[in-house]
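Q: I'm writing up a methods section and want to include an example of the input and output format. Could you take the sequence below and give the corresponding predicted structure tokens, formatted cleanly so I can copy it straight into the document?
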Amino acid sequence: MENGHRGGHGAVGRRAPREAVPVPTTSVPASAVSGRGGVGMRIGVLGGFGLWVGGEPTAVPGGSERVLAFVALRCRAAVPRPLIAGTLWPEAPEDRAYANLRSALARLHHAGRRALEIGPAEVRLARGTTVDLHHARLTAHRVLDPAEAARLPDSVPDAVDALSADLLPGWYDDWALLEAEGWRQLRLHALETLAGRLITAQRYAEAVTAAQTAVHADPLRETGQVCLVRAHLAEGNPSEALHAFARYARRLHDELGLEPTERLHRLLAGLAPSRRGDGRPGR
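A: Here is the clean output for your methods example:
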């Protein structure tokens, strides 16, 4: 099966569909493409796949989406054609996988081909092509850098926004799931770290937003819930902290049959009477 993501086009609702313009099936040497470059080209993989040219969304055939996304996730490294073919079509015979790759590249319209440098042995992003994930990863690593522990991002809302979206949601290829999980872990750690720094800086509204973004990404992850409860308590809103705890405790019990840990109970000690089974702290 050529498409490993839901619906085959992964960006439904993000751009108006258009007919793909047929292009010659022969490979374009990297040197021929690099002269045009990918200036004004942007590939999005956060929140869904998309290709923008000069700020305008453009349609990409399903199989070609997967090639663009896979190459985009390799940053700016040259990606050997055998690696692309073997990863995107792992169950196909080698010659069929190569044929699928040639077909996917051939179906790219002019704008899509400008985003890549396509050589006879490898494919890479064209100079000037940007990818939203690259900026988001840089944001996450800066937040997590111990050398930056005393600093906050220049724009906290922009940082939280960069860390708010899943990578290629609805794509179920093994390679996409692995990349998505790696990004999920990175952004959750960054959001939780950012929330903690904002609490220390007494910027409570932004701390609550960062913590809520982490909780939305994984409602059953306790470290995010701890950040949210701490932010509410630091701001002087114990009722908000108790409501957040109650929602988490109910969901954790309903979905996994577990209870919050002692750490979270200790944060709320003394705020409510001890009662078991009502979703409130009772230790």
